[in-house]
């Protein structure tokens, strides 16, 4: 189902993605980070759907459908390095900063910062072209106490 989308996303010189495709790719990245610690629980799934609802102005049903599609895409997507670099090349910088904030929301959804999630988030931020400082500021916007 997502083979053509992934081919387009990982092309040598991908074009800027239309909004709906960028939403799907970024939501799949949220799923990948949520799954990185080996646990993908209801809290994380609900958080991803709420992020999609809020960020993209979707109804709860549409947000859940987007998350479901993103789960399928994430399962078929190439390794994190190629997948994230492809997103960097195809998604505007402002949207990448916003996704770092959303990624922090997902990482912190269960109330714990797991080493695997922290490590993957640092890698993802770097691959998206986001500095450690900008990522830390995004985390502080999401969790001022942390």
UniProtKB/TrEMBL annotation:
It comes from the Bacteria. Pfam families: TerB. Residues 23-140 form the Co-chaperone DjlA N-terminal domain. Coiled coil: none annotated. SUPFAM superfamilies: TerB-like. This is TerB family tellurite resistance protein. It comes from Thalassococcus profundi.
């Amino acid at each position: 189902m997502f083979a053509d989308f992934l081919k387009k996303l990982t092309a040598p010189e991908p074009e800027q993605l239309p909004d709906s495709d960028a939403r799907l790719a970024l939501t799949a990245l949220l799923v990948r980070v949520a799954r990185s610690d080996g646990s993908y629980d209801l809290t994380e799934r609900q958080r991803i759907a709420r992020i999609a609802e809020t960020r993209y102005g979707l109804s709860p049903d549409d947000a859940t459908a987007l998350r479901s599609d993103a789960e399928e895409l994430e399962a078929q997507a190439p390794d994190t390095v190629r997948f994230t670099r492809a997103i960097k090349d195809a998604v505007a910088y402002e949207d990448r900063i916003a996704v770092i904030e959303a990624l922090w929301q997902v990482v912190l959804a269960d109330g714990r910062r797991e080493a695997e999630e922290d490590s993957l988030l640092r890698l993802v931020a770097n691959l998206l072209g986001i500095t450690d400082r900008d990522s830390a500021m995004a985390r502080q916007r999401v969790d001022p106490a942390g």
